[in-house]
Structures are given as C-alpha cells and as structure tokens.
UniProtKB/TrEMBL annotation, chains A, B, C, D:
Lineage, opening ranks: Bacteria, Pseudomonadati, Pseudomonadota, Alphaproteobacteria, Rhodobacterales
Membrane spanning stretches: none
Listed PANTHER family: SLR1406 PROTEIN
Stretches assigned to coiled coil: none
Name assigned to this protein: Uncharacterized protein GlcG (DUF336 family)
Organism per entry: Yoonia ponticola
Domain of life per record: Bacteria
Pfam families assigned: HbpS-like
Amino acid sequence: MAEITIDNARTIIASTIAKGQEMGLKPLSVVVLDAGGHVKAFEREDGAAPGRFAIAHGKAYGCVMLGMTGTAQMARAEQQAYFMNAVNGAFGGQVVPVPGGVIVRDNDGAVIGAVGVTGDTSDNDLEAALAGIAAAGLKGDG
Amino acid sequence: MAEITIDNARTIIASTIAKGQEMGLKPLSVVVLDAGGHVKAFEREDGAAPGRFAIAHGKAYGCVMLGMTGTAQMARAEQQAYFMNAVNGAFGGQVVPVPGGVIVRDNDGAVIGAVGVTGDTSDNDLEAALAGIAAAGLKGDG
Amino acid sequence: MAEITIDNARTIIASTIAKGQEMGLKPLSVVVLDAGGHVKAFEREDGAAPGRFAIAHGKAYGCVMLGMTGTAQMARAEQQAYFMNAVNGAFGGQVVPVPGGVIVRDNDGAVIGAVGVTGDTSDNDLEAALAGIAAAGLKGDG
Amino acid sequence: MAEITIDNARTIIASTIAKGQEMGLKPLSVVVLDAGGHVKAFEREDGAAPGRFAIAHGKAYGCVMLGMTGTAQMARAEQQAYFMNAVNGAFGGQVVPVPGGVIVRDNDGAVIGAVGVTGDTSDNDLEAALAGIAAAGLKGDG
C-alpha cells in the first residue's frame, strides 16, 4: 500500500485553497489524514472561524475510520440518525457526517488517507477538495 | 453459569468469517465479549476499515449490558431515539444499536456473552454471526 | 510500506500464547495493532482477568503512536513521570508505558504495527511477545 | 493586537522543518496555534510517528492557555508535579509541559500564538522552533 506523503498533503492543501479562491468561496480549512486517521497536515485560511480544525478533522476522520465518504455518511445519517449518533459515541464524537470528507485512494484503490474541507457549503467544500486531490495525482472519493 | 471460553471464541470468529466469505460479503470484523461485556477475542479481516473494532464492540456491548439483541435495540431506537441516546450517555457512547449484535446463551438460556459483527449490511452481519455461534454449539439470539 | 496482515496477527497471537504456556506463565492476553494504532486481532486466555484488553492495548498503543518501545517508555516514565502523564492526557489515557509493548517492523525497518502482551511480569510478557513476532517472520523491537 | 496569519504559519513551519533537516534531527512535527489556542496550521514530516500531532499540540497549547513557555512549564512540573497534573485536569489533558512549546509575540510583546515542535530531544525541538519563528520575523519565547 502506498502512503500519503507530506508532499501529497502540501499539494492537496494548496490546491484546495486555490480552488476555493477561484470559486469565490469563504475562507477554507483543509486537513489531510493518513490511512490510520492521524493528522498529516492542516491549514486554516485567515478569516475562518477558530473551530474549523475540529470540523475539517471530523469530516475526514469518519471517511478513514468507517471507509465511507462524507456523502454516504450523510445519506446514512438522514435515513438512520440514531445509527450515526451511536457511531459517534463509539468514536468519541469525532465524526462529522457531511460532504467535504473525501477518501483518498492509491492507483490500486486502497485507502491511503482522507481529506476534510470546511468553510463554505458542504457541496462547495467537496468540489474544492476533489480539485485539490486531483492536483496531487490521486483519486478522491467524496 | 457456563463461561464463554477462548476455544468458543476462536470457533465463533473463524466460522463467522468463513460464512461471510461463503456469502460473498465485504471483509468482516468480529468481536466476542464475555458475560461482563469484556473483550475475549477479536479479528478484523484484511481490507476492513480501521475503525471497525469500535463498531463491532458497540454492537456486542449493548447486547450484554442491556440484555437486548441488536434487532431489539434497533426497534427501540426507531420508536424512541432519545431513549437509546440516553442509554448511550449512561454507557459512555459504547452502544451501537443495530443488527449484528447477538446475545450468546448456554443450554439453560443464561447469557454467557455476545458477538458483534460489522462490515456488510446489518442483516448480512447478523446472518454470519448466527452461523458462527451455531458452529461453536451455542445459541445465538440476534 | 508492508501492512500487517490478519495472517501475521493470528501467528503472532497463537505463538505468543504457546510461548507463554511453554514458559509456565500466567494466562496471557495479546493484542495486535496496525500502523495506525487500530486493533487487528486480540485474544484473552481463559483465566485472565477481564480488564486485560485495556492493558494489552495500552502497551501496544503507545508503541505505535509515539514510535517508542515499552522499555523506552518505562525509562522515560521513571526519569520524567510528569511527561508520560502529560502524554497520556494527550492520548486520552490510553498509553501503558511498560515492557510488553513491542514495535513490529518490516524488513526495511518501517513500523507496521505493534503487539501488546499482559498477564505475567512485564519482562516475561515481553519475552513471549518477541517469540510470537519472530514466529511470524517479523522483527520485534521491545 | 496583531494576529498570526496563515503566511506567518507557513513560514514558521517550513523554516522549522528546514532547520531540523540542517541540524540532522529526526523527522519533526510542527503546529502553529493562534492567540485563542486554536490550530492555524500543522505538518508532520514523513517518518514521524502517527501520534505526533497530539504532542506538538500539547506543547503549544499550554503556552497559549497558561502564558508560560514550555521551559517554564517543565520547571514548574519538576518542582510541583501535582500542580501541572491539576492544570491538565482543568485543560482536559491537553498540556504537554516540556521545551519545544514556544510563545509567539508581536513587536509590542503581545501573545499572538504559539508553536509546538516534537520529534527529537526537547532541546533540539526548541532550537528548531525558535529558528522557524525568527524566519517569520516574529519573536519566540521558549
């Protein structure tokens, strides 16, 4: 299995933020986690609210730990809210089940990490994240 | 009261995983808890998401601590979500109330432990768990 | 980087327990974590106290998260107790800094997981763990 | 009061890592917090243990929240360990009181954030952090 590198993470973060600026989004916060759910890199743009680390982290963390995209987590939460609540109990409240959490895969499809983006609408967050991951030559599953 | 043994647990886990492979399920994670709700044995198949221990554990833990099957817990959660949320507050968020959590009973009907299976749909998780428990000569109540 | 497989984990656990029985140790509990600190497999022998999962986990978890062996963690705790207390605060109290926590490396020296053994003296726990890891053809650093 | 900017944070992180590489240190992890103790940016070099975010964060967090440098916190912990334990109770275990936690001040001496560095010895972590902060034209108090 490939590992997500700090060079990958730097490209993902810089390209996600650049995409957000090009789209005219509010200031973004972007986290990159490794395949174990541990923080590799993070940036919070000037003007973003101070609590954005936890939101970005929560979007990405659920992707790694459950192997589900943010979009899939949201669908499950809408169908079966008590299940996602229970999942969050099991993970110490660290899962934020909405779009903007994206699984990162290597060329063989193995999960090598996740990206979490927050700051604008969930759909815009997701669009910026996918652009950032593509810029690093990786596959995003959001 | 009989106690669930490590030999029981090994048979349950191996047979649950074999059943899942035979059914063509996604990679499974299987935990066996004793009558006190404490982990006796666990395996996570290659390819399962890293957070699956917490989900498997949460399915089994509620079975032992509440004396309710995963199926019964789900029914209660759907009728009275706030109640299962409150239960989870009392149990530190460790209860995941869906099928795949199975009470294990001895021949007299006494609870001697529980099994939690996660990885595919809740219904498929449950079917594999019941096969694993039966392979150990025990009675599963899911 | 290689990944620790469920086959590796099964061999490590079976061989650690066999070694403990050969050495005449008390009943052992053995956990195998992956490179992200997530549980891959666990067994608690009949006769071991119910809380042994948390101790085995805590020995292995610190190895992965800090990149330090259980022996090195104990040395640091003895020199600078407040530091290991603070580390434990940062990791939610999950680190048990004594021998019996062993880093598992691949042939290139990369950390691919950790093993935690508890039940007898820390030194005996470590000896059994190293035998189990060697039986899987891997390198243990304890 | 000036605020620490994302440009400041990028320079601090890049320069701290460059300094560590120049000094021949082990792979570093570097966090920059704002004046409210909230994460602004973070990087973990390839090869660093996965748990390093929590340690870097803990070094910087105590600096902001207590207005004490990592060096001063260590002195207090060595004199009065129970006090720093109690502080950690109040702060949810998030304070790691050793060198490598550095207060960042503006030209008027106001605290605008903190940097936390971990990976090598505490003294080397501190030296790299001070170099990174100086490279951003700011004053580090370690």
